[in-house]
Amino acid sequence: MTERLFLENAYLRETTARVQAHTPEGGVILDETLFYPTGGGQPGDSGALIWDGGALSIATSVKADGKDIALVPAEPAALPPVGAEVIQKLDWDRRHRHMRMHTALHLLSVIIPLPVTGGAIGAEKGRLDFDMPDAPADKDVLQEQLNELIRRDLPVSEMWITDDELLANPQLVKTMSVKPPMGSGHVRLVMIGQGGEQVDLQPCGGTHVARTGEIGHVRIGKIEKKGKQNRRVALHFG
Predict the structure, then answer these.
(1) 16-30, 99-113, 128-142, 207-221: least confidently modelled range
(2) Among 30, 58, 44, 1, which residue's Cα sits nearest to residue 206?
(3) Is the pLDDT of residue 84 over 80?
(4) For site-directed labelling of 97, which of 29, 39, 153, 206 has its Cα 20 to 30 A away?
(5) Count of domains in the chain?
(6) Which distant-in-sequence residues (6+ apart) come within 8 Å of 172 by Cβ?
(7) For 142-167, what is each residue's pLDDT tens digit?
(8) pLDDT value, residue 177
(9) What is the distance between the alpha carbons of residues 231 and 209, in angstroms, rounded to a whole number?
(10) Residue of 156, 158, 154 whose CA lies nearest to 197
């Protein structure tokens, strides 16, 4: 299994690794990686691999067979040999924007405490779909509530529970369409705030900023009707 360094330190931008295999589609599997694979509404990371005698631009990363992660080249090119040591470098600006937006969407689910039916994270904008029969009465009030949580600069941390503990506490799961990352025997929870200031706790395998203040100001965009009860709430930076 590819070791997931992004779970240990989401701020690590560059490190070495060793090539374990190539996929039939031309991807590269490392023994450990900084690159988050596409999943849970968060895009796969991009960046580059550098080794003695070559370099490769990485367009995205995806889950491969088993529990491996495959790095997908931006264009056909020579791959680093199996067994070679490589330097992996993230497109940090893009990854950091994903981290900021992902945490902001968790906060959006706090100020709109309704079941989440879908979502997507981007470097410029994101969105959550809610089981929301009626549109919010005042979007500006929601936006101010969201930015107030951001300005509180709450710490963002993680904890782990067992699959059984999660099954015994179904209220932790906000998403209706995406199942929490279960199956390994334990589940990662992302917590925003601590103690009496805790505002959110939910299962998540994605990358997040360390404090909400790092998100910066956000703007709620369109709130669109998507089906009988679903409404899509867009979120933008700035």
Answers:
(1) 128-142
(2) 44
(3) yes
(4) 29
(5) 2
(6) 166, 189, 201, 202, 203
(7) 999 999 999 999 999 999 888 788 88
(8) 58
(9) 27
(10) 154
Tell whether 86 and 102 lie within a shared domain: no
Domain that includes residue 47, residue range:
3-90
Could you give the CA distance from residue 112 to residue 43 in angstroms, rounded to a whole number? 24
Query: How many angstroms separate the CA atoms of 133 and 81, rounded?
Result: 54
Residues near 118 by beta carbon (within 8 Å), at least 6 away in sequence? 41, 128, 129, 177, 178, 230, 232
Average pLDDT (182-189) is: 75
Query: Which of 47, 98, 53, 92 shows the shortest CA–CA distance to 73?
Result: 47
pLDDT for 43 beyond 70: yes
Per-residue tokens: 140: 């500006």
* Domain shared by 146 and 220, yes or no: yes
Cβ atoms of 60 and 69 closer than 8 Å: no
- Same-domain check for residues 127 and 39: no
Q: CATH number of the domain at 219, please.
A: 3.30.980.10
Counting other chains too, the contacts that 43-46 makes at CB distance below 8 Å and 24 or more residues apart are 43/98, 43/121, 43/122, 44/72, 45/6, 45/90, 45/91, 45/94, 45/95, 45/98, 46/74, 46/90, 46/91, 46/94
Residue at which a domain ends, from 50, 73, 90: 90
Name the pTM for this structure.
0.93
If one compares 168 and 203, the residue with the highest pLDDT of the two is: 203
Closest by alpha carbon to 126, among 61, 222, 213, 24?
222
